[in-house]
Amino acid sequence: MIPSFAQIRGALVAAVLASGLSACASLPPPTAELAEAQQAIARASDADAEQYAAQDLASAREALSRAQAAMTAGRDDDARNLALAADADADLAHARSRAAQLDAQVAQRRAEITQLQQRLDQEGGR
């Protein structure tokens, strides 16, 4: 049996509608990812990453800037990926900054212990 024009037209309309619906089901713009990256950069800055992890923080800021430009240009997938990279770089900057601060505190405590041991040795030798 040969399909009629009405059947072919109906199949084409259904295909076009399905295609249109799948386009509507694509991912939303990456505004949440951009906001999360901005917050991660702020956390890293608050943790003195400028001092202890400047390169990682600069990389995060650069990726965020590129993500914003990609979103403005309508390249949502690129914007999403760049925002996720910015978030990761900022988290790394935060972690390295906190590690450096903790290392400094440990060094300070060790110096204090050494001073106390020296005082005890001097008082014991009197």
Automatic annotation (TrEMBL):
<feature type="signal peptide">
    <location>
        <begin position="1"/>
        <end position="25"/>
    </location>
</feature>
<keyword id="KW-0175">Coiled coil</keyword>
<feature type="coiled-coil region">
    <location>
        <begin position="85"/>
        <end position="119"/>
    </location>
</feature>
<dbReference type="Pfam" id="PF14346">
    <property type="entry name" value="DUF4398"/>
</dbReference>
<protein>
    <submittedName>
        <fullName>DUF4398 domain-containing protein</fullName>
    </submittedName>
</protein>
<feature type="domain" description="DUF4398">
    <location>
        <begin position="32"/>
        <end position="108"/>
    </location>
</feature>
<dbReference type="InterPro" id="IPR025511">
    <property type="entry name" value="DUF4398"/>
</dbReference>
<keyword id="KW-0732">Signal</keyword>
